[in-house]
Design a protein that fits this description.
The chain is an alpha/beta fold and 258 residues long. The protein is built from 5 helices and 11 strands, in the order αβββαβββααβββαββ. Residues 127-139 and 142-149 have low confidence and may be disordered.
Amino acid sequence: MQILKDTKEREMRFSVNPNKHVNGVAHRRRKTKRVVKNGHATNDLVLSASLDGNDAIFPKILELYVRPGSVVADITYGKGVFWRNVRPGAYRLKATDIQDGVDCRRLPYKNGELDCVVFDPPYMHTPGGTAHSTHTPFEAHYRNNVSGNQTISKYHEAVLDLYRDGGSEAYRALKKKGVFIVKCQDEVCANRQRFTHIELMRIYEEMGFIAEDLFVVVRSNRPGVSRMVRQVHARKNHSYFLVLWKRDGRKEKWEPPR
C-alpha cells in the first residue's frame, strides 16, 4: 500500500511540473489536442509551390488575397492566361496591355483608385529578342537587350527598371492595403546569378509595399536544350508570384479579405 501511495504522489508531482527530470532526462506531459472552433478539417489547401500552371494557381491567389467584387487592373494582360479559370464577373477587371497602347509605366488611373494590380512584364533580358517570343509586343516597346526605351540601363538592370517603374505606378494607383501581384523569374546574366525575386522585394519594400506571400510555379516540362561549353548554374525551371500590399500608415499587419 505504501508503494502505491508513493507512486501516486510521484505522478501528482510530475503532472504539475512538466519539466520534471527523471534519471537525469527531462520529460514533458503530453499536451491535449487543441480544439479549433468554427473550422473544419481539410486537405484542400493552397500550397506555396505547385506543378500546376499559372492559370491554376492565379485564381487561388485571388481567392486568398483579393475580395470578390474588387477593382483589379491587369496592366500586362496579354492573352489573359492568368484569368482562364477565374469565374467571370467575380472581379471588376480592367485589362490593359502595351499592345493596346497602355504603358504599365503610365497608367490611366487616378491615385488610390484600384484594389489590386497584376503585373507580369518580360522578366529576363533577351539578346536577339528571341528568348521570350510570347512577349513579342513587349520586345518592340521594352527592348532591354540594348539600352532600352526610356531607360539608360542594359540587360538585367533594364529588367529591374521596368519592374521598378511599373511598380511605382501600381503603388500610386492602389488604395491603402491594395494588393500588388507580381510575376517574375530569377535569371543568370553575364554569368552572374541574379535572384530577381529578392531584388524586387527590396525595391518594392523601399517604395512602401510590404511583401506578404510568395508562390513558386514549377514547369512540368523540361527546359529546351541550350548550347553551352560547360554548365555553371542550375537551369531555371520555376517562376514566382509575389504578393505585396500597400502599407496603410504605420499598420503593417495584413488583414485577409472577408
